[in-house]
Amino acid sequence: MIARNRRINLMAVAVIGMAIMTTVAQGQEPSQSLKGKRVAILVTDGFEQSEMTEPRKALDAAGARTVLISLQKGEVKGWKDKNWSDKFPVDLVLDEAKPDEFDALVLPGGVSNPDQLRMNPKAVQFVKAFVTAGKPVAAICHGPWTLVEADAVRGKKLTSWPSLKTDIKNAGGHWEDAEVIVDQGLVTSRKPEDIPAFNRKMKEEFAKGKITGHNR
């Protein structure tokens, strides 16, 4: 009986090992569980649609609960291929959103979206609260514009859409042209084509949670 159970256990281990090898061979990674994590996604009209929907899909698949937050109730409009695109229901209005009720933050890009957010004091303060608390933040394309306004890039290495390079440098950040950069819980990428790498690192950092002993 002992020998039989041992054979069964060995077979189970072998099956699990083969499954992991198959996943790696197909260019995938074992899923990073974010169960129990509550993630804020802050946008307003004009966000680059894929930079919201694709990261959100990845987070939801990993078990996170994503909450779409905007300046007003109702719906927000995405931007795709230089035109207005789909509408998405707002889960929570910014006035009612509390940073301490979330574990992480996503800032999609698009030109109009972060430009409006960085001009809104409540949006800037919301972003700054995550950074001050040491919670991970993921920003892509023009998304770091709001981080600049929140004085959240000083002393950090990051990337973005190239036109933000000077703004980031003037705000004390260290800009690099790279697919994805992670520094002190801050995950940044340049453009929609970087989304796969962005999602991968975003999930890793969000799974780690708060940064202890951070310098923010």
Give the arrangement of secondary structure elements.
Elements: H1 2-25, E1 38-42, E2 47-48, H2 49-61, E3 65-70, E4 75-80, E5 83-89, E6 92-93, E7 104-107, H3 112-117, H4 121-132, E8 137-140, H5 144-149, E9 157-158, H6 165-170, E10 174-175, E11 180-183, E12 186-189, H7 195-208
Parallel strand pairs: 1-3, 1-7, 2-4, 3-6, 7-8, 8-12, 9-10
Antiparallel strand pairs: 4-5, 11-12
Helix pairs in contact: 2-7
Overview of the structural elements:
- The protein folds into 2 domains: 30 residues; 177 residues, Class I glutamine amidotransferase (GATase) domain (Rossmann fold), CATH 3.40.50.880.
- It is an alpha/beta fold and 216 residues long.
- The chain contains 7 helices and 12 strands.
- A 7-stranded mixed beta sheet has the order 6-3-1-7-8-12-11, with helices on both faces. The chain has a 3-stranded mixed beta sheet with strand order 2-4-5. A two-stranded parallel sheet has the order 9-10.
- The radius of gyration is 19 Å and the shape is globular.
- Helices cover 38% and strands 22% of the residues.
Task: Give the tags.
2 domains; alpha/beta; 7-stranded mixed sheet; globular; Rossmann fold; 216 residues; 7 helices
Q: How many separate domains?
A: 2
Helix content: 25-40%
* CATH architect. name of the largest domain: 3-Layer(aba) Sandwich
Compute the separation of the termini in Å.
59 Å
Concise account of the structure shown:
The chain is of the alpha/beta class and 216 residues long.
